Amino acid sequence: MASNKFVTLVTLVMILLPTIAMATDFIVGGDSGWTTGVDYSNWAKDKTFHVGDALVFKYSNPPHNVFKVNGTGFKECVKPTANDQAPLTSGNDRIELKTPGNKWYICTAANHCADLGQKLVITVMDAAPAPAPSSAVRGIIFSGYQVFAAAVVGVFLAVAI
């Protein structure tokens, strides 16, 4: 009897798990990190950023920092005024992408942004769609209540085993 409950639990997990969208952490600049001499436009061009994903800026401080700026601040490499957000300086900064649209980041150390290209612009899309179900469960459509009921049954079976 316990083995039947286990099989049922595993089946529920296999059905529900693929429907969970996973967020992605992007290490800005890849192995190079956040530094001078990296083409951040090239780094970002083949990536799709979604609400819920995060940018991780890895760098040495000093000299580097991360400022979130607007389009003008990005174009002119100008750090925000005192009323805006403070710079990030930990050397391992994680920024969750909470809203869709364009996002701009610069380093304000010396001439890093203007002359050395240490700046990043990305476009964030709405939340990533859930992955397509596997062929084993294709065609099965769950409403919110069915998913909730399946989760409750799964918890009950896990406790009963």
Describe this structure in words.
- With 161 residues, the protein is α/β, with parallel strands linked by helices.
- The chain contains 4 helices and 7 strands, in the order H-E-H-E-E-E-H-E-E-E-H.
- The longest helix has 17 residues, at 144-160.
- The radius of gyration is 22 Å and the shape is globular.
- Mean pLDDT is 80; it is low at 9-20 and 135-145.
- One of its GO terms (cellular component) is plasma membrane.
- InterPro entries: Cupredoxin (IPR008972), Phytocyanin-like (IPR039391), Phytocyanin_dom (IPR003245).
- Residues 1-23 form the signal peptide.
- This is Phytocyanin domain-containing protein.
Chain-wise SSE layout:
Elements: H1 2-16, E1 25-27, H2 40-44, E2 49-50, E3 54-58, E4 67-69, H3 71-76, E5 92-96, E6 101-106, E7 119-125, H4 144-160
Parallel strand pairs: 1-3, 2-7
Antiparallel strand pairs: 3-5, 4-6, 6-7
What key attributes describe this structure?
transmembrane helix, electron transport, signal, disulfide bond, alpha/beta, single chain, 4-stranded mixed β-sheet, 7 strands, Phytocyanin domain-containing protein, 19% strand, Immunoglobulin-like
Briefly, what is this?
With 161 residues, the chain is α/β, with parallel strands linked by helices.
